[in-house]
Amino acid sequence: MTELAHLFSPLKIGPMEIANRIMQPGMSAGMVVDKDLHVAPEMIAYYEERARSRPGMMAIGQSMVVPPTPGYTPQGMIYLHDDKYIPSLKKLVDAVQSHGVKFGIQLGDTGTQGGGAVHLSPSAVPARAAATGDARLRPELKALTIEEIAQVVQYFASAALRCKQAGFDFVEIHSGHGYLLSAFLTPYFNRRTDAYGGSLENRARFLLEIVAAVRDAVGPERGIGVKINGEDYLEDEGAFTIGECVEVCRMLEHAGVDYLAVTAGVMGAKRLTIPPLYEPQACFNDLAVAVKQAVKIPVATIGRIKDVRMADQLVAEDRADIVCMGRAFIVDSAFVDKARRGDMRDIRTCLADCRGCADHEMRSIKKGLYGQTSCVLNPRVLRESVCIDIEGSARGNPKKVLVVGAGLAGLEAARRAAFSGHQVTLCDSREFIGGQIRWAEMIPGRREIGDMLPWYQYQLEKYGVDVRLSTEVDEQVIRQFAPDVMFVATGSVPQVPQSMIDAVLNVQNIGLVMADDIFEFSPEIGARVLVVGGDQIGMQIADYLSERGSTVIVAEAHNHFAFKLAANDRWYLISRLIEKQVRRIKNVRAIEIEAEDQVWLQCGDNREHLPGIDTIVFASERKSMRGLAEVGERLGIETHIVGDASDVNSEDAGMIFSVVAQAYDAARQI
User: Fold this and answer.
1) Quick one: pLDDT at residue 355?
2) DSSP label at 43?
3) Is 179 designated active site?
4) Which residues does the chain have with pLDDT short of 70?
5) Cβ atoms of 351 and 569 closer than 8 Å
6) Tens digits of residue pLDDT in 278-307
7) Which residues pair with 106 in a beta bridge?
8) Do 336 and 313 form a contact (C-beta atoms < 8 A)?
9) Which residues are CB-contacts of 541 (< 8 A; sequence separation ≥ 6)?
10) Are 420 and 379 in contact (CB under 8 A)?
11) Three-state DSSP class for residue 350
12) Helix, strand, or coil here: 183?
């Protein structure tokens, strides 16, 4: 414990004392309600599992204080405008508090950056980017009147009282991320000329009135926090900046707030509120430091903090009093307990690949599904009540399991099968584990993708997996091994699109390179490169090659680039390519190579010549390698095909998110 002594020290926050400085901050992750908007059993299971690890404090994500517009049927959110929601909230509170954790809830309204039929705002200025679902709902944009502001203040107070009645230890008023209260602070969105606009004091008035009303409602025995933007990161005039934030935080301290959580960003800003791995770890901590130097109440820092050692250092160096580690709780619900006992190698860390958490939720909402948050490395998220993993459950009757392929699918299948107590052998023809993850971590800005591999290595050792590298598996080996169960996790290989076979036959001197070979064999790459395929692999290769000095053009057959990537990752990746002048061409119908290596693109009715292309990289199509599955089935072996060997064509194919989930689900069934 001495290694993390600062992180595991207690702290007084207003009327509360927390046992350690770790907070699971309010997030949409884990928020699952039934059709009547009552807390669902899945939500209780999600929060209680994380409470068992005993962080200092936990909070539910932003919950709506304003009643929904008549005629609009809300989904997927907690609402606090009616007493009928108190009983289910109390069940959740009791479950979390039974583990000695201080538990709170965020109060707010999404303003112009959420769902709903009516978007409340200070001045009817729309969000800089559309929230998911807005195109379908066509919401009304409404500037609040003075009377309506007073009504919203009362909504916050009434909601806070209901939270007190449900037993919450604290409430956190959400005034960040461009939501309603944040928009009032930001001159770009707040163009009012009355008492709620203009000067900083006026723009903060709404928030301060809410703080006063909430304090009157909950009394001195409940804690009150405020989550506030340190920076909006809007590039034009009218942004809310750290200088103004510091002044507002002084006002909030004077108003009796017990702690401050400093966040950043709004929709459409150059930096995102949920930062992907392209952002440095603890990316917003400088903002928290600025606030902490100006106030005496505790300050929480947030923004891609995944390492408990870093968290301890932030507290030790007086850069924060509380460390919010949101996605760390999603990927490993027990990480606090593991850190407490010093078992650092056993902590599964967040990759900041947002495909499973934020992006999966957004894609699901577009399909009309709510509460669908997951995790690229933890497929049990929101399945805690049904996927109950019991270590050694098969030890009394273990099966002999052969896993062929030590890429990500094979690693997860081997780990999960061995966790149950089966006798597992993992083979790979290469001399290392990880497969394509080894290539992925070589992409600029994406080194942390490889952070999963030391964890898997430890899990294989921990559960006694027999790892055999540089080992080719064929029918003879399978017969000699005689497994009860075999997992075929042999991956996929890139291939030349069928439509380009004739063109390739015309090549004279252009270098033809398959995507994977760039990383495994380091072939010579020319000065002008055409990357065929603009999904996640092609776009990342374009980033990799342009970083090394090549002029790169990406040709994509469809209308989108890097569609499979999480939107947050894609935002940063495309920004990088634009900065490096990588040209992206979409809706490419055909690529032709004529005499003397003249390359032409056919886009609709237009035909464009690409002069001087000396290298073509094939990064669009892949072929599953699953031949051993036929052998296994012919020999009567229970055979499972997982990972790329199973699927390379669907929307989620080839993504860490789907590969881990599929292997986990298959392995836990044996």
Assistant:
1) 81
2) H
3) yes
4) 1, 130-137, 360, 362, 368-369, 371
5) no
6) 999 999 999 999 999 999 999 999 999 999
7) 172
8) no
9) 443, 515, 518, 531, 617, 619
10) no
11) coil
12) helix
Cα–Cα distance, 69 to 119 (Å, whole number): 10
Fold of 2-366: TIM Barrel (3.20.20)
Q: What is the pLDDT of residues 537-582, one digit of tens each?
A: 999 999 999 999 999 999 999 999 999 998 889 999 999 999 999 9
Cβ within 8 Å of residue 62, ≥6 positions away = 26, 28, 106, 107, 108, 110, 174, 179
Rounded to whole angstroms, how far apart are CA atoms 422 and 401? 7
Superfamily of domain 400-491+625-668: NAD(P)-binding Rossmann-like Domain (3.40.50.720)
Question: Residue 566 is encoded by which pair of tokens?
Answer: 């999480």
Four-point Cα dihedral 183, 185, 189, 192, nearest 10 = 120
Cβ neighbourhood burial of 375 (10 Å; 0-12, 13-18, 19+): buried
CATH fold for domain 496-622: FAD/NAD(P)-binding domain (3.50.50)
The residues spanned by each domain of the chain are 2-366, 400-491+625-668, 496-622
Q: Which DSSP string corresponds to 127-154?
A: PSSPPTTHHHH-PEEEEPPHHHHHHHHH
Structure tokens at 180: 């309603």
Residue 103, CA distances (Å) to 58, 83, 172, 322, 561 in order: 5, 19, 11, 14, 41
Burial classification of residue 277, based on how many CB atoms lie within 10 Å of its CB (0-12 exposed, 13-18 middle, 19 or more buried): buried
Q: Cβ(367)–Cβ(39) under 8 Å?
A: no
* DSSP secondary structure code for residue 347 in this structure: P
CA-nearest of 114, 229, 108 to 171 is 108
Query: What is the three-class DSSP state of 472?
Result: coil
Task: List 530's β-bridge partners, or say none.
Answer: 553, 616
- The answer to whether residues 599 and 593 touch, using CB atoms and an 8 Å cutoff, is yes
- Both tokens of 553, joined, read 């053009």
Residue 375: which of 49, 646, 22 has the closest Cα? 49
Give the number of other CB atoms < 10 A from CB of residue 264.
Answer: 27
> How far is residue 645's CA from residue 379's CA, in Å, rounded to a whole number?
19
Query: pTM for the whole thing?
Result: 0.94
Distance CA 145, CA 121 (A): 10
Q: Report residue 499 as tokens.
A: 């439509």
CA distance 276 to 477: 43
Question: Cα 346 to the chain's mean position, in Å?
Answer: 21
Pair 241, 197: CB distance under 8 Å: no
Question: What is the token pair recorded at 641?
Answer: 């095909």
**8 A C-beta contact, residue 63 and residue 79:** yes
How many other CB atoms sit within 10 Å of the CB of residue 370?
19
Of 46, 85, 155, 179, the active-site residue reads 179
What pLDDT is recorded for position 268? 86
Neighbours of 523 (CB within 10 A): 13
- Other Cβ atoms less than 10 A from the Cβ of 251: the count is 16
Instruction: Return the pLDDT at 371.
Output: 64
71 contact partners, CB below 8 Å, separation of at least 6: 117
Place of tokens 């390179």: 513
Task: Answer for the pair 422, 464: CB distance below 8 angstroms, yes or no.
Answer: no
